[in-house]
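dumping this here before i forget
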Amino acid sequence: MHREMSAHLVLDVTSPATLAFELAVSGQYTVTEALTVSIDGAFVEPREVVDNHGTRLHVLEAGAGRLLLDYAATVDGRAGSESVAEADLLRYLRPSRYCESDSLGPTAHAEFAGLSGYDLLSAVSSWVGSRLSYVPGSSLPTDGAVRTLLAREGVCRDYAHLVVALLRALDVPARLASVYAPGLQPMDFHAVAEAYLDGQWYVVDATTLAPRSTLVRIATGRDASDTAFLNVHHGFADLLELEVTAVAATLPDDDVRDLVVIG
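structure:
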C-alpha cells in the first residue's frame, strides 16, 4: 500500500528550550523521508532517539526564535513485525496518567460483564463511540478518561484514552498509538487504541473517522504522555501553526467487525 504524509510546524521559541518531536514514521517501516528544521532561517540538525517500540524522537536544543519544521515521508508496503515483550504486556495492564483504569473498573465490569476476545473489543469500541460526541477543541490537554466520560465529548485522543482505560480494567493489555491517518477529516495527527488479543495488537478506533488499514504508526505508549507530537523542556515555546497531510492510493471500506492491525 502506497501512502504519503507530511507535517509542517511553526513555533515561537520564547526562551531556549529542549524540544522533542514525535512525528516521524515509526522505524518499523521502510520509508523515504525528509526532515528539515530551521530557526530564524538557519538550518539546525536534531538528534534522533529511538525507543523499544521503534518510536523515533527528534530532539533539538533550540535557541529563542521562529522555528520551522517540515517533514515528508512516503511508505510503500506494510510495517515489519513487532516483537512483544512480557514486560510491555504487564505495563499496558496498569493505570496510567490519562487512562485511569482503576477508577473505571466498576463501570467496565458493569457494562461488559461476560464478554471477552473480539466481542469485548467490538463492544467497548461501540460503547465509547455511542456515548461520546467528537467536538474539536472540547477537551483540555490534561483531561483523562474519567473526565472524558463525564463530559461525554472529546477528540481522538480522548476516545482512545477511554477505550484503553476500559480494556485495562478488564485485564486486556491496551495502549495508545499516534498515527498518520489517510482519509481523516478534519486532518490532523490521529490517536487510536490498540488491544492485545491472541498474540497480536489490534486497532480499536471508536471515532471511526479513518480506515484503520491505511494508518501509519508514529509513536506507541501508555497514553498521550508517551505519544505527543511535541514536548517542550527547560524553556518555553508556543505552537503557531500546524498542518498535517496523509493520503493513500486507495481508501478501503472499514468494517468495524474486522480485526485490523496498524501496518
